[in-house]
C-alpha cells in the first residue's frame, strides 16, 4: 500500500494495552499459559515508532484495560466471559498487572492526557477517544498493540465505523495465536484497514516532515476596478467574502472563501496575478534550501498575515508566498 495520500498532521498513533497483564511473562496471560514472548516481540519496533511519532508531533494515544475484582454488570451474564478462561481477572484497577510495561512507561508518561482507561475490548467503547480524536483533528489512525483478535480488532472495527482511515502496523500488533492472527489480518485488509510494516510508516513520516509545500493557500489577482470585480465574483459566481488582515502596503483588497483575493492594480491597465500563496510545514528549512539553490526573493522571512512568511520568484518571475501557520520570526 502507499501512505502518500495521508497527512501526518491529521494522524495519530493508537497503542492498545501494552500492559503487564498481556505482555509480561508474570502477567495474567503469562501465568495462564500464553506465550508472552510472542506478544512482547512487538515492543522494540513499537518503541522506535512511538518515539518517532512523539518527536514529530504525531499524537500517541495509549489505552489501558482496567477491570474491577467485582463487576456487577458482567456478573449478570449467564454464559462464561473471556475473563473466566484465565487464572485471574486481568489488569485489576491499581494492580501491577494493570501498569504499562517498564520498557514503554517513560514514553506513556510523555503526555498523561493521552492515556485512556477502558473497561472492555474496544478503545472507543464508552471512552473519550472519539472526542479526543476530533479535538486533535485526526483522520488517519495508525493502530498498534495487543491482543490482535480481541482489543486490537475490536478497536479497528470501531475506528472504521467512524470513517477514520485505519492503518494496522503489522509488526507492532500481536496476539495469542499465530493462526488466528493471520486470518484476522486477511479480514482486516479486505474490509477495515490497510496494513503496513513500521519501516514503511517511519519512511512515510520522514518524507512528510521534509520542508515542502503542504496546501494551496490563495491567489491574489490584480484588477482595474475592485468594486466591479467584487460584484462580479459575488453576484455572478456566488463567491463569499471572508475577513482578512489588511495588506502591509495599504492597498485595498477583498478575500473570498473560495481561495482567491482581489487587489487594485498599480496602474489603470495593470491586470495580472499578484502572487500565489501556499502553506508549508517548515518555512525556515525551506528558506535555507531555497537560498542554497539561488532562488530570487521578493521578501525575506517575516511575520505575515498567516504566519512566518517568505516571498520568492518562480523561474518565470511569478511571486510565490510561502507561509507556516503558527510560526513567528
UniProtKB/TrEMBL annotation:
<keyword id="KW-0378">Hydrolase</keyword>
<dbReference type="InterPro" id="IPR029068">
    <property type="entry name" value="Glyas_Bleomycin-R_OHBP_Dase"/>
</dbReference>
<dbReference type="InterPro" id="IPR000868">
    <property type="entry name" value="Isochorismatase-like_dom"/>
</dbReference>
<dbReference type="InterPro" id="IPR004360">
    <property type="entry name" value="Glyas_Fos-R_dOase_dom"/>
</dbReference>
<protein>
    <submittedName>
        <fullName>Isochorismatase</fullName>
    </submittedName>
</protein>
<dbReference type="InterPro" id="IPR037523">
    <property type="entry name" value="VOC_core"/>
</dbReference>
<dbReference type="InterPro" id="IPR050272">
    <property type="entry name" value="Isochorismatase-like_hydrls"/>
</dbReference>
<dbReference type="Pfam" id="PF00857">
    <property type="entry name" value="Isochorismatase"/>
</dbReference>
<dbReference type="InterPro" id="IPR036380">
    <property type="entry name" value="Isochorismatase-like_sf"/>
</dbReference>
<feature type="domain" description="VOC">
    <location>
        <begin position="215"/>
        <end position="325"/>
    </location>
</feature>
<dbReference type="GO" id="GO:0016787">
    <property type="term" value="F:hydrolase activity"/>
</dbReference>
<dbReference type="Pfam" id="PF00903">
    <property type="entry name" value="Glyoxalase"/>
</dbReference>
Amino acid at each position: 500500500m502507499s501512505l502518500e495520500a495521508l497527512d501526518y498532521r491529521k494522524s495519530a498513533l493508537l497503542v492498545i494495552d501494552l500492559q503487564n497483564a498481556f505482555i509480561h511473562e508474570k502477567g495474567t496471560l503469562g501465568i495462564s499459559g500464553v506465550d508472552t514472548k510472542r506478544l512482547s516481540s512487538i515492543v522494540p519496533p513499537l518503541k522506535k515508532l512511538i518515539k518517532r511519532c512523539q518527536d514529530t508531533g504525531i499524537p500517541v494515544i495509549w489505552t489501558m484495560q482496567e477491570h474491577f475484582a467485582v463487576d456487577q454488570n458482567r456478573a449478570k451474564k449467564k454464559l462464561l466471559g473471556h475473563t473466566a478462561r484465565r487464572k485471574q481477572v486481568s489488569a485489576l484497577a491499581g494492580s501491577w498487572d494493570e501498569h504499562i510495561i517498564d520498557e514503554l512507561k517513560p514514553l506513556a508518561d510523555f503526555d498523561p492526557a493521552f492515556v485512556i482507561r477502558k473497561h472492555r475490548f474496544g478503545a472507543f467503547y464508552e471512552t473519550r477517544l472519539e472526542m479526543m480524536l476530533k479535538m486533535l483533528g485526526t483522520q488517519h489512525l495508525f493502530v498498534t498493540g495487543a491482543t490482535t483478535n480481541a482489543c486490537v480488532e475490536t478497536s479497528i472495527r470501531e475506528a472504521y465505523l467512524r470513517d477514520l482511515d485505519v492503518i494496522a502496523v503489522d509488526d507492532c500488533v500481536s496476539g495469542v495465536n499465530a493462526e488466528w492472527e493471520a486470518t484476522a489480518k486477511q479480514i482486516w485488509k479486505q474490509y477495515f484497514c490497510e496494513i503496513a510494516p513500521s519501516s514503511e510508516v517511519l519512511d512515510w513520516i520522514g518524507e512528510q516532515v521534509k520542508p515542502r509545500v503542504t496546501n494551496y493557500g490563495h491567489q491574489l489577482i490584480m484588477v482595474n476596478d475592485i468594486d466591479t470585480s467584487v460584484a462580479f465574483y459575488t453576484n455572478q459566481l456566488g463567491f463569499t467574502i471572508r475577513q482578512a488582515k489588511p495588506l502591509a502596503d495599504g492597498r485595498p483588497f477583498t478575500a473570498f472563501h473560495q481561495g482567491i483575493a482581489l487587489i487594485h492594480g498599480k496602474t489603470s491597465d495593470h491586470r495580472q496575478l499578484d502572487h500565489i500563496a501556499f502553506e508549508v510545514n517548515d518555512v525556515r528549512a525551506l528558506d535555507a534550501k531555497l537560498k542554497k539553490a539561488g532562488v530570487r526573493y521578493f521578501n525575506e522571512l517575516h511575520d505575515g498575515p498567516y504566519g512566518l512568511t517568505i516571498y520568492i520568484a518562480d523561474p518565470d518571475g511569478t511571486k510565490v508566498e510561502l507561509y507556516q501557520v503558527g510560526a513567528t520570526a
